Each structure stands twice: as C-alpha cells, then as structure tokens.
Amino acid sequence: MADDLDARNIVQKIQDLMRSNTSTARYTMQVQTPDWQRSIRFQSWDERIKKRFFIRVLSPRKEKDTAWLKSDKNLWMYLPKLERDIRIPASMMLSSWMGSDFTNDDLVKMDSVVADYNHRILSQDANSIRIESTAKPDAPVVWGKIIHAVDHNGIPLSDDYYDEHGMHIRHLAFSEVQTMDGRRIPTLWVMQPLNNVGKKTLLKLEEATFDKAIPEYIFTRANLRRASPH
Amino acid sequence: MIFSLAWRNVARSWQRSLVTIAAVATGLSALIFLWGFNDGVHNTMMRNLQQVIVGSVQIHHADFFKKSSLSRHMKLTPELQNALSKAQNSGQVKALSWRLETFALAAGNDVSEGLLLLGMDAKSEAKTTRIAEKVDQGRFLQAGDGPVCVLGATAARNLGVNLGDDVIFLSQDRFGALAADKFKLIGIISSGEMGIDRGLAIIPLNVLQNMLEMQGRYTRVVLQIAPDNLEAVTTLLRASLNHKDYEVLRWYDMYPMMKQWVDLENAFYYIFLGVVLLIVAAGIMNTVLMSMLERVREFGVMMALGCSRSVLAGMVIVESMILGALGVLLGLLIGLSLVAWFHSVGIDLSAEMDTIARFYIDPVVYTEIDADHLWQTAGSVMAAAIVAAFVPMWRVAKLQPVEAIHHV
Amino acid sequence: MFRIYMRLGLRNLLLYPMRTGLTVVGLAVGIAALTFLSAMNNGWLQNMKANFVLTQMGHVQVHAKGFEKSRRISDYMHATSEVDKALQNMPHIQAWTHRIRVSGLASAAGANASVLVSGIEPENEKKVSRLYGFVQQGEWLRKADKRGVLLGDVLAERLSVGLGDKVVLMAASPEGDIASEVFRVRGLIHSGVLDVDNLLALVPISMARDWLGLGLEGAATDVVIRADAFTSVDGIVKNLKQRLDTHDFEVLRWQEIDPMAEQWTMFADVYTWIVLLVVIIVVLAEVLNTMLMSMYDRVREFGLMAALGTGQGQLFAMVVCETLVLVAMGGVLGFVLGAAASLYFAEYGLNLSQYATAFSFMYMSPIVYPELTLNGCARILIAAMVGAVLAGIYPAWKASRLNPAAAMREV
Fold it and tell me: Which of B24, B279, B297, B356 to mutate to test the interface with C (most CBs of C within 10 A)?
C-alpha cells in the first residue's frame, strides 16, 4: 500500500514529539487488575542514538534502588537487597515488563513505528485525524496495523493495535496534556488489553527533559549501585 | 470313573508321564522366568520415574502442564481439600507433597542461565519421592532451612558454582514485580536425567512462596500411589474436582513414552507366549498320541466289552488334563522359585553395559511378575494341554473295536 | 560309520511319521519363531537407533569447541569450509548439513514464548534428518522462502498462531545486540515429544545468518552428519578428529550428545540374549521329551540290537545321530520358515499398532521391519545343533545301558 506523505509526516511528528535523541524523565506506572493493584515510580535516562538507557526505581520501598543499565550491548540489573548486579542474557527477557501490559516488543522497538509501516489518512473531523498504519510485509513487528488518532495540533489521542486478522488487541489512550521542557505532550498513557478486561496499565509522566546531554557516568556499572537521592 | 481310569493310565507309564510333565513344566517355568525378567525391568523403570520426582498422580490448575505459568496456580480450596481427604481416606495414597515452581534466571559468579525454580517441602517430599537420594554432593533440603538451594550437576557446572557459593535467583512475583534473592548452594544432584541435572534448582517451598508473594499457593500436588490403585484414585480425584479448574494427570499422561515402550515390549512377549504354547502343545499331542497308539488294542478290548466311545474319549482328555495340570503345577513351582530367587539376588548385567549414570535403567535386574501375566501364562499352557488332546481324542472316537484288537 | 548312523537315524525317524512329524513341527515352529523374533528384535533395535539419531541429532556433530556445553551463539563456527572439505571425500558419509541453533523469544500479537530456533538448509536437512516427515500441517521450508518458519504445534497453539500468520523472532546476536525478524508460519511440526513441539522453530539458515549478524556464508553452530551405517560412526569420528584442529572444533558422536538413546539401545540388546536363551531351553526340552519317549517305545528294539552285538558306544552314537537328524530336519524347516517370514515383513513391515495405544512418541514406530543378519542366523543354528547334541545325550546314554534280556522282555 502506498505511503501517504501527509500521514507519514504526522506519524513522524508524533514520534518526534514523544521521543528525542536524549531524554530524562520520571514516571509512575500503575498496574491494575480485578484482584490487585501495584504502583512503581522510576527515573529514566535514555540515549537513543547510542542505544543506551538507565532506569532506577524510586518507590515502593521494597523495590527502591533497583536499577537497569543497557549499554555496551549488555543488559545489567542491580538488586539493592542483594547488593549484586547481574547480567541478563538478552534472550531471557521477561515476557511482560514489570508485570505491565507493555511487552519487550514495545521496549525494544518503539522507534520503528514510522519506518516499518505504510501510512494513510483514514478519516478527519473537527477534532481529530485518524491514520491507519499498515505493517510492511518484512517489518519485524507483530501487529497487522495500528490506527493512530491525533488532534490537529499533532498531539496523539490514542493508538489502536490490530493483529493481521483484524482483531483488535490493544488500546492505548493518551490524555492530560501538559507542557514539559517546552513541549506539549500527553502525560498519561493508559494501555488496555482487549482480551483481559479489568487489567490495565497506566503510565504517568511526572517530569521530563529532552535533548539535554546526559553525563557519561550515568551509563556505567558503578552507577547501578548508587542510591537515588529521593 | 473316567478320572480314575485316566489317573491309572498316567501312573502306569509314569516315566513317560514324567517326561511330558517335565516338558510342560519347563515351558511354563521358562515363560514365567521371562515374564519375571520383563516385568522386573519394566516395573523398576516405571517405579523409578514415579518415585524419584514425578509421582504417580499430579494435580494442577487446569491447563498447567501444557501452558505452565505462575498465574495458573492452586490454593487449598475446600474443593481441593475435600478431594484430597477422600483420596487419603481410601488408604490408597501412600504420600503426597506440595510444590511451587516458576521460571527464573540463576546467576552464578559471572554467568547467568535460565532454569526452573522448584520449591519443595523437605519433610513431605522425603515421604513422597526419593529425589533427596540423588544428591551426590552436599545434602538435600531439610525442615527449617532458610535460603539454600540444590542444583543439578550440569547447571552448577555451567554457572561455575560449588558447594557453599551463593546463587541468585531472579524471577517475577505474582504481581509481576521483580523477585530476587540469594541462596547458598548446599547440594548438587546427579540423577542421569538431563531435565533434572541441567535445568532444575530446588529451594524450600516456604522460602519460594514468600519470595513470589505466593503464600498458601501452589503449582502442583504430587501423590505417590501403588500401581494397582492408580486408576481408582485418579477416577476418584477427577470426580471430585471440577475439570475446568483442575487437571488430574497420571505419570503416563505426562510422560507417555515409557508406557508405550512397555506396551510394545509386552506385545513382543505375547508373541513369544504364542510360540512357546505351540511347542508345548505339540509336545503334549505327541505324548498323548503315542501313548494312545500303544494302547489301541487295549481300547479295542474295552470297546468290545461295552465301554462307550465317549467314555474313552473323555478318558483321553482327562489324561491330558492331568498331565497338563501336574506340569503346570510343577512349572509354577519352579518358575516362581526362579523369580523369587532372582528377586532377592538380582541379575547383574553391568558387565554388558556402561557405567554411565543411569536414570531409567538399572544394570541389576530384580525379577518380579505381574499377577495377570502369571495367570494368563499358566492358563494358556493349561488350555494348550487340553487342546492338544483333541486330535488323539478324535482318533480314539473313530476307532473300530475289531480293527483295534488286531492292531499290532 | 557316521553316514550309516545318520541313515539309520533317518530311517528310524521315518518309521514313526506322526511322532517325528509332530516333533519336527514343534522344532520348526521354535526355530522359525527364534529366527523371526530375533530378526524382528534386530530390526526394531536398528529402527529405534535410527529414529533417535535421524529424527534430529545425526550420527555425528561438529561444533566450535565448547558449544555443546555453553550453547551460546557466540561459540559459533565462523567458517565451516574446513569441515566441509574434510567431509567431502570421507568414506561412509551419507549426507551432511549445517545448522544455526539459538534460543530466543517468539512474539505474536497475542502472546510470547521462549523458543529454540534452528536455522536449517532445507534441502540438505531432508537428506540428513527426518524432521521433514513430521510436518503435520502446511509444508516444509523452501530455500527461496526467506521468511518461512516452521513451528512445533504446541508452540503455535501457545502463541495463538496458525498457517500464514506472522511471528517475530527475537534473539541476541553474538555481540549481545537484540535482533528481531518477522517470519510467516509455513507449517506445523508434530513429533510427539513435548520438548520439541513446545519449543522448536525452524527457519532457513541464510535468514538466520542475516538476522543474527553472523555475516559470512559459511557460519554455523552445527555441522550435522549422517553416516551410511551405525558401524561407520567411530571411523568417521576418528577421521574427523585427525583432520580438524581440536582447538577450534569439537566432534561428538550421537551417544555423547544424548546418552539416554544409548541406554535404551544397549539394554534392548542385552534383553535379546536372555530371551533367546530361554526359548532355546524350551526347544531343548521339547526335543528331549520326544527322544526320551521314543526311547521308551523302542526298548525292545534296542535290546534286540544289543543282543545281536551292537556295542554300547555304537548305540549311543546312533541315538545321538538320530537326534541330530531330527533337529536338522526341524531346524532347517524352521529356519526356512523364519527367514521367509522375516524377509516378507522386511519388505512390507509388521504392524503392531493394535497392541499398543497411541504411538505418538517419535522414537518408536508401531510398524516393525525385521532385519535378518548372518550373525544372528549363525548363532541360532549353532545353538540348535549344540542343543540337539545335548538333548540327545541322556536318551542315548540310557539306550546304551540297556540290559538286552530285560529289554526284550518289555511289552
């Protein structure tokens, strides 16, 4: 299917808005199920070009100072209770990240949304534009298509994920638009799997800075063992 | 009267009778010994599988065996409690134990590897399985143990850890949060079974439950049951547990390979049985025919004196039955003695086999025979003896008295 | 003299056609059964060994040194040309193929699962292993189809995918990068072994190389070799170890790769001996039975012969020879029958599936092809002859010890 330039640009703009070459951010992630609820707060440093990231957990107390470092082709994890860092074999990734509805897929391939799909505008109305992104045949993505809903300012409203047979698998809703480091972005992301009613994951962006240089010491193993200042 | 006639005939030519009885006895005792060997090997193998770690029957959350995951776990619900009580009250359950397991990353000094983290309760496990015996360095878990672990030999080697070293296990708890803890390696298992030696780490059940926030939750109930009671207990459990929530699996539902092997070999044996039966039948037919041919004159006289053909025929049959019965009795005696002897002494085949750590097959075979194999065999030999008599009997029935008397 | 005894023996036997006939039949059945069952056991054993080895493992495997233990993709062979060259002109090699093995993660829209990926050469693989025969739905991989994947059926079920669906495979390259590629399910494999059906994903090796960044065309983790016979394996291994640098490569025979396979086959072998022994005993007993009986019958005859001057030794020899002739007749007949049955079923196969339920386990086929070996036949014939002589001794001894006068008085 041919790429609609406008559609492609819009999707690209969403990516540019939500991502940057470097970013530091603080999030709260809440996982809700019919039986229980869990909340964790963490700080992340992300360097897209060099493919490195560092995450440190801030709360709850049980998991405070647990940290991950991806750098030099290795994934390290630090366990504060045991005062040990462990190298995680990349193929051994836990299937859902921290029990949430986000998968490794999301973690690893979030930036392929533009390149791996063909985009076209599906519909428009006064409030929003809907874009249909269909996966290219050789793209390493599990989805058949994604439908992005975006407002006329280029701020994403929702993403709907469909498998190849057209079955609606996930719904990601964006809301609570705020200004962060000069950008207007949604700060609340809610992922709802459609085969598991009652379970959902909320990701709240508390604070973020973009495209500021991140000091080298962040991406070192020594950094894993540091406690968070909060 | 037929019986006493028959008996007298048998006793009269006792040497010949003895030879035939001996032939039947040899055939039967050989067969019994063969079954003893066969059943000995098979039963030991099946027992090993059940007794070392798998158990006879396991209860899981529905679908757990094929799609194992921590979310498919069980709690001690009234339904489960009730089912287990019923099973235990029947007296047919020898022991049971509870387990919890999950997939985890094990980190040694420098190397990490994925394996199955299995929580066992030392006390009840000791009564249910013999996994503790497979520890060949250090020791197995004991009641009251804290964060200690037992690893398969290959896993320990891959991780580069020795007794006394620390191993970290990293997994996800019930809520998806990271669960990790440090354990001291106190025992190493060498079982000869790859699945255990390479991919298993055993820690105390309560420690694992706490680590995973799975207190009061389990993934398996393992029951040890004598083979004769297996089906009964399984039926009982299946009737007491809703199949939408629980699955009740026998060891061979989970690991069918062994049972299929045993079935195939038994099929082989039934063919042997057929062959030996034929040989024995031929032998008896021979004997009875011969003895009959000798006594043709005698039969002729008896018929002339008014003895009916049916009585004569009956006599021939009864003679065979007596020979057969005595042969079977003797055969049972010899055969069972052989089985009993080798059951206590064992047949040592290790000269012919390698000394690699063996899980399934023991080089020393202790014979034992399944009751139904025993009675099938004895019964068939007896039947063969009787059937073998039919030809001679038929010939007797056709005798003409005058010709018979003139027979030389 | 011997010939006379044989002729006498034969004549004596023929005098009592019914009795001799029955005994010969009994013997023939015994020997036929022995021959046939021994051939069947042999065939079954070979079948099983072949299944173990040819389903996936191969007779011999060559890896980069340390791979079997570590199973890490970083321990891969950068070039297999050295191995290929060594194998090119080696005798007793039937076929070989290359594979790349790596463990990874399979993702589909609905679910994820751990997998063991095997990058294979579709055409060569068919010549070496039998995986091809286990494709239950769909079809085997085609070399040109770069993105085809075959999944174990249980795995496919867990991922909720069917034929034609997308699956993304993710694994770590030797450098540690996570690489993923999309594939389409072309076929489902059912082997009956849960570990295989639950974990196996087959892709073309060229794609695996690209995907994992192994670059060069010769890269592989395994060279899997099929020998022309089990007896050639040791020779091949020795040959390879001489030609290849053992610092770089490791050469493993099938027994070392899966010790369990060897346990089973070795044991089955020992089993046979015991069974054969027992059947021989039974046959012996039968022969003894008949000979003794005929002895009792011919007491007068022997007495007469003794009275007429036949020496003890001669009587002894005569009876033993008679036994020999008897066994020879039964034995030859039996052997011919047994061999015929073996050869017939070797062609058409003997279907035992009604005796054992659900043969879904891949190492055992319910259809057995007996295999007659020269070794096996020789063993049986010699055993039969020895048995015959042994069986003849007691009756012969009794015959020779008869008191002529008393004997002739017997009625």
Answer: B279
Report ipTM (2 d.p.). Answer: 0.79
B252 to chain C, any CB pair closer than 8 A? The answer is no
Convert the pLDDT of each residue in B12-41 to its tens digit.
878 778 877 888 888 888 889 888 888 888
| Separation of alpha carbons B20 and B327, rounded Å | 8
Measure in Å the smallest separation between the Cα of A128 and chain C Cα atoms. 27
Q: Which of A36, A40, A86 sits opposite B107 (nearest CB)?
A: A86
CB pair distance less than 8 Å for C180 and A161: no
Distance CA C221, CA A209 (A): 45
pLDDT of B394 > 90? The answer is no
Give the closest of B33, B264, B286 to C356, CB-based.
Answer: B264
On whether the CB atoms of residues A171 and A162 are closer than 8 A, the answer is no
Average pLDDT, rounded, for chain C: 82
Q: What's this model's pTM, rounded to 2 decimal places?
A: 0.77
CB neighbours of residue C252 within 10 Å: 18
C334 Cβ contact list (under 8 Å, min separation 6): C27, C28, C29, C30, C31, C32, C33, C34, C35
State how far residue C104 is from chain B, nearest Cα, in angstroms: 12
Most confident of A51-55, B187-191, B221-225, B373-377: B221-225
Residue B89, judged by CB atoms within 10 A of its CB (0-12, 13-18, 19+), counts as: exposed
Residue A76 contacts residue A53 (beta carbons within 8 Å): no
Closest CA of chain B from A92, distance in Å? 7
Question: Could you give the CA distance from residue A17 to residue B68 in angstroms, rounded to a whole number?
Answer: 41
Dig out the tokens for C98 from the structure: 């290359």
- Cβ(A211)–Cβ(A217) under 8 Å? no
Chain A nearest-CA distance from B268, in A, is: 46
Residues of chain A in Cβ contact (below 8 Å) with chain C: 72-74, 89-91, 93, 95, 103-105, 108-109, 135, 138-144, 161-165, 167, 169, 195
* C175 interaction partners in chain A (CB closer than 8 Å): 73
Nearest-angstrom CA–CA distance, C396 and C392: 6
pLDDT tens-digit series, residues B261-306: 788 778 777 877 787 777 777 777 777 777 777 777 788 888 888 8
Q: Do B176 and A89 touch (CB under 8 A)?
A: no
What is residue C362's predicted lDDT score, i.e. its pLDDT? 45
Q: In chain A, what residues touch B114 (CB-CB under 8 Å)?
A: 89, 92
Positions of chain C with pLDDT lower than 70, given as ranges: 1, 176, 259-261, 263-265, 267-268, 271-272, 275, 279, 352-366, 407-411
Chain A positions in Cβ-Cβ contact with residue C181 (cut-off 8 Å): 140
- C250 with C48: CB under 8 angstroms? no
Q: Is 3.30.70.1520 the CATH classification of the domain at A5-91+103-214?
A: no
What letter would DSSP give residue A217? G
Residue B264, Cβ neighbours under 10 Å: how many? Answer: 22
Indicate which of B14, B19, B105 best probes the interface with C, i.e. most C CBs within 10 Å of its own CB. B19
Radius of gyration of chain A (CA): 18
Q: What is the pLDDT of residues C43-85, one digit of tens each?
A: 877 777 777 788 888 899 999 988 887 777 888 888 888 888 8
Q: How does residue B210 score in pLDDT terms, banded at 50, 70 and 90? A: very high
Residue of C nearest to A112 (CA): C180
- The residues with which A37 forms a beta bridge, in sequence order, are A32
Q: C-chain residues within 8 Å CB-CB of B37?
A: 274
Interhelix angle for B309-345 vs B14-49, to 10°? Answer: 40
* Domain chopping of chain A, boundaries: 5-91+103-214
pLDDT of residue A214 exceeding 60: yes
Q: How many beta-carbon pairs below 8 A join chains A and B?
A: 53
